Amino acid sequence: MSAFWARHAWVGGGIVDRVRIECSAGRITGITAGADAAAGDHELPGVVYPGAVNAHSHAFHRLLRGRTHGDGGSFWTWRDLMYREAGRLTPESYERIATAVYAEKVAAGWTSVAEFHYVHHRPGGEPYDEPHAMELALARAARAAGIRLTLLDTCYLSSGFGAPLAPEQERFGDGTAERWLDRLAALRARFAAEFAPDEVSVGAALHSVRAVPVDALATIAARIGTLDGPDGPGAAAGDAGLPAMPLHIHLSEQPAENEACLAATGRTPTDLLHEHGLLGPRLSAVHATHLTAGDIDLLGSARATIVMCPTTEADLGDGIGPARRLADAGANLSLGSDQHVMLDPLAEARALEHGERLASGERGRFSPAELVRAMTAGGAASTGRDVGEIRVGALCDLIAIDPASVRTAGSDPAQLVMSAFAADVREVVIGGRSRVSEGVHRELGGLADIAADLVAASSAN
To answer: Which tens digits make up the pLDDT trace of 71-113?
Structure first.
C-alpha cells in the first residue's frame, strides 16, 4: 500500500483541506480529510485534482499541429492532409508517434484516453500479417507512456451515403459490418489475454452515420451487446456501474453531414441512431455541434455522453455546440482533445465555458465544479473505467496543480480550472504511481525530450 498527502484536494465536488489518500493495487482504499501526513507518505505539491480523462483522441492527428493554416482552408481541406498522414503510417511509425503523443498527454495531466482508432490495415485495405498490428502498436505506446487506454476500434465502411470507400480510406475498412464485428470480437479477446484491463481495454466506435450504411447500423445494433463478455474488460466496467463496452460516434460535426443524412434517410443523424436503438448510456456522441431541439431531447433522455472537443472545434471552424442545453436535457458532458491542437485538459474545460459565453453573451454558463467534472469523471462512461474521482474504490489517478505560478497566483483553489494551464501541472499519478514530476516523465524524459521524440517521429513518418 502507498499513501499520498495533499494540502488541498478536490474531493466530492469541492476543495477539502489536508487530505490523506491511501492506495493499494492501483485503487484508492482510504481517504482522510483534516489529516497530517504520516511517515513515508508522498506529499503532492499544490492542489490535487482527479486525473483528467480524454474522451476523444486521434493520436496521429498530432502530426497536423501547426501545418494546416497556410491558406485558411476548411474542414474538408484539413481532412485531405489528414488522409495523407494516415496513408503513411506503419505499425512501427505509429508506435513511435503515439508514444510521444501519449507522453505529452500524461505530462499535461491527462491520465486516461479513449483512442478513436480507424487505421486498421495496410494502404489499399489488405490486412497485416499480424491482423492487429496497428492496434497493438497503440497499446504498446500507451503502456510505455503510462496512460490508461480505451482503444475504440472503429467501423468505417463508406465514404458517404451510398458511396464506397475512397482510395485513401480503404485501409480503414473491413468491407462489411459482420467482418468488423468479428475482428472487434477477436481484438477484445486478444487484448483481454495480453493486457491488464485497468491499463488497456477495447471499446467500439462507428465513425459517423455517413461512414456506416443504414443496413450496417441494424446489424451492429443487433450484435453489439453480445460482445460484453464475462472475461473481458467490459465486465469489469459493468461491475463498476458503467456501460459494459463503450460505443462512440462522431455526430453532427458538420452541417453537410446533417444535410446528407436528411437527404438519404429523411432523418437527422441522432434520429437515425435512435431508430436503431443505439442511443443510451453506452453511447458517447463526439462533437454534437449541429443539433435540432429534438436531437437534444433524445440525447438527454438517453443519458448519452457528449464529448466536446472545444479547441479542435474552434480550430476546424465547426461551430459552438449546445453544451448547456444538452446538460440541462440530461446528457453527460465530457472532454476530448481530438486532433490535439493543444494537449491541455484545463484549457479544454475553460474553452467549454468560453464557447458558451461567446454564444450566449452570459458568464457562468458552467460552474467551475461542472467544468472539473467534465474534465474528469464526465469521461468515465466514455472509457468504461472507474476514473475521474478521488473516491474510495476509484482508480488512483491524481494531478497536482501549482496554485502560485505566474498564471495561477491569487486564484481560489476551487477555481483553478479557470486560470491554470497544463504548464501548471507539477505531478501526475496514475494507478498510485508517480509518472510525471516537474515536467519530467519518469520513463521517457523531460518535455524537451518528448518534443524531440515528436519531431523525430513526424520526420520518420
So the answer is: 887 887 888 999 999 999 999 999 999 999 999 999 999 999 9
What are the C-alpha distances in Å from 284 to residues 379, 386, 395? 9, 16, 21
Distance, in Å, from the CA atom of 6 to the CA atom of 47, rounded to the nearest integer, reads 7
User: Which residue type sits at 227?
Assistant: L
φ and ψ at 363, to 5 degrees?
Answer: -95, 165
Query: Where are the chain's structural domains?
Result: 2-49+394-460, 51-383
How is domain 51-383 classified at the architecture level of CATH?
Answer: Alpha-Beta Barrel (3.20)
pLDDT (0 to 100) of residue 453: 76
Q: Coil, strand or helix: which one is 45?
A: strand
Which top CATH class is 2-49+394-460? mainly beta
Positive or negative CA dihedral for 374, 341, 144, 21?
negative
Told to judge if 338 belongs to the known catalytic residues of this protein, a careful annotator would answer: yes
Which cell is 116 given? Answer: 478513436
- How high is the pLDDT of residue 74? 80
Whether 2-49+394-460 shares its CATH topology with 51-383 is answered no
The SS3 assignment for 209 reads coil
pTM of the model: 0.95
Question: Given the DSSP bridges, would you call strands 2-11 and 14-24 parallel, antiparallel or unpaired?
Answer: antiparallel
* Amino acid symbol at 352: L
Q: What is the DSSP string of 340-371?
A: TS---HHHHHHHHHHHHHHHHS-S-SS-HHHH
Candidate list 174, 198, 271, 338, residue with the active-site label: 338
> Residue 345 and residue 365: Cα distance in Å, rounded?
18
* Closest listed residue to residue 353, CA positions, set 380, 330, 335: 335
Distance CA 248, CA 229 (A): 19
- Catalytic option among 58, 120, 274, 287: 287
Of 174, 172, 171, 229, the residue nearest 201 (C-alpha): 229
The kind and range of the H/E element at 11 are strand 2-11
Range with the largest mean pLDDT of 70-84, 230-244, 326-340? 326-340
CB atoms within 10 A of CB 410: 7
In SS3 terms, 118-137 reads as CCCCCCCCCCCCCCCHHHHH
351 and 321 Cβ atoms separated by less than 8 Å: no
**Residue 406, Cβ neighbours under 10 Å: how many?**
8
Tens digit of pLDDT for each residue in 293-305? 999 999 999 999 9
